[in-house]
């Protein structure tokens, strides 16, 4: 290991209380159980980015609660911290929320009483802050026109300012969620009609969002004017479905119909069973999040009628064209990089191999790990296949480098397994800027690409070579209208060109926090 790489490795020593103490930049084990910090964040075993939520809605199906359960299960990759479902029945709302995975929160006992044909559901990803049941969605409120439930994916950039204003005017907040800000705006609207009150609230907020609103007789869906967060509509017989990703429709036997358009407002009325197409704002510069295609969305999902797996394969092919290197095998970091690795292998003719295997059953364990396991903590989630990589020159494909800590661990894991060379290829441009639109990212100073050159990053992660996909190669691989900026995608995390105004002094967090 070279000296630059050593700077990112943390030694651990056993403290007098039996807990691990860290000497370096980040601890490999903290908290009450072994993998409590295994997600994004400086204290985690992985520095991958964290998506902020997924939403699912059903209108006009007698098994709305059960459909929502399966739909949320398909969207589990978008959030594992908490989940919830709210159903509108003949008599009242019935809802249940809890901390944990969908399968941990729901069972026959709590799903059985949730009778109704209209429902919205939510899975939440937590940031580094405290996880709270109060922040689990859908949030349910009482207001002058009756019951109201709200679920959202995204982040409102002006929510802190709105909240301060509302608090000065007497509002009392029970959560730290942006969603509650919208509920207050709806409650304070001069309009009694819920559709007009929602429209009034949406015109006051800025940022990225996909909203589902549920009342006793209506379901309302809305997407931000830039289309930053994905949001799709489908059908199951006569029922309407809504989801953050189209893969949720496949799970419940539904069919994708179309993407909800930026600035669009869809209203479904229980009394008439009709769908009304409306707008609360004209569409602005289209800016679908590029990271959805690179990393977040499931490979079997389609966003803006572009299949995620196919787009990632094209990224891998373009990466090979831009940065060919002679090697023996190509391997991808599971799961989101597999498609790009296949594309790279197909373009170069270098065999694709499963050089890295993901352990999908790393459930929480309260058993204290040994000193050695703390230091090798990443192996709880990922293993190198020694017989495949030993004695080989390996091209390792990954989707992004955030802090560099995970890349270093994986490169060293491949070397320990006998790889003679490790060439790292990244299927996105250097990640240099934080996201303010619903993705959990570090501040700019913690992003390795913001403070180091490509060559410095290569040394820091102990790779023999390193190359990032060009931004032009990325947007062309995804596709989209040639006449729009970045072909209609938000690439602010790469080029610092944010499609909306960002408050300079605001410390903006997760919209679902």
TrEMBL record:
<comment type="pathway">
    <text>Purine metabolism; IMP biosynthesis via de novo pathway; N(1)-(5-phospho-D-ribosyl)glycinamide from 5-phospho-alpha-D-ribose 1-diphosphate: step 1/2.</text>
</comment>
<dbReference type="InterPro" id="IPR029055">
    <property type="entry name" value="Ntn_hydrolases_N"/>
</dbReference>
<keyword id="KW-0479">Metal-binding</keyword>
<dbReference type="InterPro" id="IPR029057">
    <property type="entry name" value="PRTase-like"/>
</dbReference>
<feature type="binding site">
    <location>
        <position position="336"/>
    </location>
    <ligand>
        <name>Mg(2+)</name>
    </ligand>
</feature>
<feature type="binding site">
    <location>
        <position position="435"/>
    </location>
    <ligand>
        <name>[4Fe-4S] cluster</name>
    </ligand>
</feature>
<dbReference type="Pfam" id="PF13537">
    <property type="entry name" value="GATase_7"/>
</dbReference>
<feature type="binding site">
    <location>
        <position position="490"/>
    </location>
    <ligand>
        <name>[4Fe-4S] cluster</name>
    </ligand>
</feature>
<keyword id="KW-0315">Glutamine amidotransferase</keyword>
<keyword id="KW-0411">Iron-sulfur</keyword>
<dbReference type="GO" id="GO:0004044">
    <property type="term" value="F:amidophosphoribosyltransferase activity"/>
</dbReference>
<feature type="active site" description="Nucleophile">
    <location>
        <position position="53"/>
    </location>
</feature>
<keyword id="KW-0408">Iron</keyword>
<comment type="similarity">
    <text>In the C-terminal section; belongs to the purine/pyrimidine phosphoribosyltransferase family.</text>
</comment>
<keyword id="KW-0328">Glycosyltransferase</keyword>
<keyword id="KW-0004">4Fe-4S</keyword>
<dbReference type="GO" id="GO:0051539">
    <property type="term" value="F:4 iron, 4 sulfur cluster binding"/>
</dbReference>
<dbReference type="InterPro" id="IPR000836">
    <property type="entry name" value="PRTase_dom"/>
</dbReference>
<feature type="domain" description="Glutamine amidotransferase type-2">
    <location>
        <begin position="53"/>
        <end position="271"/>
    </location>
</feature>
<dbReference type="InterPro" id="IPR035584">
    <property type="entry name" value="PurF_N"/>
</dbReference>
<keyword id="KW-0658">Purine biosynthesis</keyword>
<feature type="binding site">
    <location>
        <position position="493"/>
    </location>
    <ligand>
        <name>[4Fe-4S] cluster</name>
    </ligand>
</feature>
<dbReference type="GO" id="GO:0000287">
    <property type="term" value="F:magnesium ion binding"/>
</dbReference>
<dbReference type="InterPro" id="IPR005854">
    <property type="entry name" value="PurF"/>
</dbReference>
<keyword id="KW-0808">Transferase</keyword>
<comment type="function">
    <text>Catalyzes the formation of phosphoribosylamine from phosphoribosylpyrophosphate (PRPP) and glutamine.</text>
</comment>
<protein>
    <recommendedName>
        <fullName>Amidophosphoribosyltransferase</fullName>
        <ecNumber>2.4.2.14</ecNumber>
    </recommendedName>
</protein>
<dbReference type="GO" id="GO:0006189">
    <property type="term" value="P:'de novo' IMP biosynthetic process"/>
</dbReference>
<keyword id="KW-0460">Magnesium</keyword>
<feature type="binding site">
    <location>
        <position position="289"/>
    </location>
    <ligand>
        <name>[4Fe-4S] cluster</name>
    </ligand>
</feature>
<feature type="binding site">
    <location>
        <position position="399"/>
    </location>
    <ligand>
        <name>Mg(2+)</name>
    </ligand>
</feature>
<dbReference type="GO" id="GO:0009113">
    <property type="term" value="P:purine nucleobase biosynthetic process"/>
</dbReference>
<dbReference type="InterPro" id="IPR017932">
    <property type="entry name" value="GATase_2_dom"/>
</dbReference>
<feature type="binding site">
    <location>
        <position position="398"/>
    </location>
    <ligand>
        <name>Mg(2+)</name>
    </ligand>
</feature>
């Amino acid at each position: 290991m070279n000296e630059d790489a050593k700077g990112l490795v943390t030694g651990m020593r056993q403290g007098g209380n039996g807990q691990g103490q860290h000497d370096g930049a980040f601890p490999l084990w903290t908290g009450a159980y072994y993998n409590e910090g295994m997600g994004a964040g400086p204290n985690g075993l992985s520095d991958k980015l964290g998506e902020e939520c997924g939403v699912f809605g059903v209108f006009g199906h007698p098994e709305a609660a059960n459909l929502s359960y399966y739909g949320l299960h398909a969207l589990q990759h978008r959030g594992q911290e908490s989940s919830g479902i709210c159903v509108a029945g003949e008599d009242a709302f019935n809802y249940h929320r809890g901390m944990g995975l969908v399968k941990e929160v729901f069972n026959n006992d709590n799903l059985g009483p949730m009778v109704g044909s209209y429902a919205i559901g939510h899975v939440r990803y937590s940031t580094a802050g405290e996880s709270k049941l109060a922040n689990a969605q859908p949030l349910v409120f009482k207001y002058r026109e009756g019951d109201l439930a709200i679920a959202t994916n995204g982040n409102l950039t002006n929510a802190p300012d709105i909240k301060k204003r509302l608090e000065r005017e007497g509002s009392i907040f029970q959560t730290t969620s942006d969603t509650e800000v919208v509920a207050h705006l709806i409650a304070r609207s001069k309009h009694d009609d819920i559709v007009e009150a929602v429209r009034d609230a949406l015109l006051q907020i800025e940022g990225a969002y996909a909203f589902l609103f549920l009342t006793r007789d209506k379901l309302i869906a809305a997407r931000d004017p830039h289309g930053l967060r994905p949001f799709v509509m489908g059908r199951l017989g006569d029922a309407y479905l809504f989801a953050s990703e189209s893969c949720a429709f496949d799970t419940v036997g539904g069919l994708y119909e179309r993407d909800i358009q930026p600035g669009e407002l869809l209203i479904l009325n229980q009394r008439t069973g009709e769908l009304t197409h409306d707008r609360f704002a004209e569409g602005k510069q289209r800016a679908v999040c590029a990271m959805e295609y690179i990393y977040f969305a499931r490979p079997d999902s389609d966003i803006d009628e572009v299949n995620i797996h196919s787009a990632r394969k094209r990224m891998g092919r373009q990466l090979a064209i831009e940065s060919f290197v002679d090697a023996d095998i190509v391997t991808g970091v599971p799961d989101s990089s597999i498609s790009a690795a296949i594309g790279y292998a197909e373009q170069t003719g270098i065999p694709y191999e499963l050089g890295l295997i993901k352990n999908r059953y790393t459930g929480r364990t309260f058993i204290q790990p040994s000193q050695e396991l703390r230091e090798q903590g990443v192996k709880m989630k990922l293993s190198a296949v020694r017989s495949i990589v030993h004695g080989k020159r390996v091209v390792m494909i990954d989707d992004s480098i955030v802090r560099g800590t995970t890349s270093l661990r994986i490169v060293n894991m491949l070397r320990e397994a006998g790889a003679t060379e490790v060439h790292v290829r990244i299927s996105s441009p250097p990640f240099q800027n934080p996201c303010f639109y619903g993705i959990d990212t570090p501040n700019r100073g913690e992003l390795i690409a913001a403070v180091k050159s490509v060559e410095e990053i290569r040394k820091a992660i102990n790779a023999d070579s390193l190359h990032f996909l060009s931004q032009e190669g990325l947007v062309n691989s995804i596709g989209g209208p040639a006449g729009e900026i970045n072909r209609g995608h938000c690439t602010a995390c790469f080029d610092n060109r944010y499609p909306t105004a960002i408050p300079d002094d605001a410390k903006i967090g997760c919209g679902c926090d």
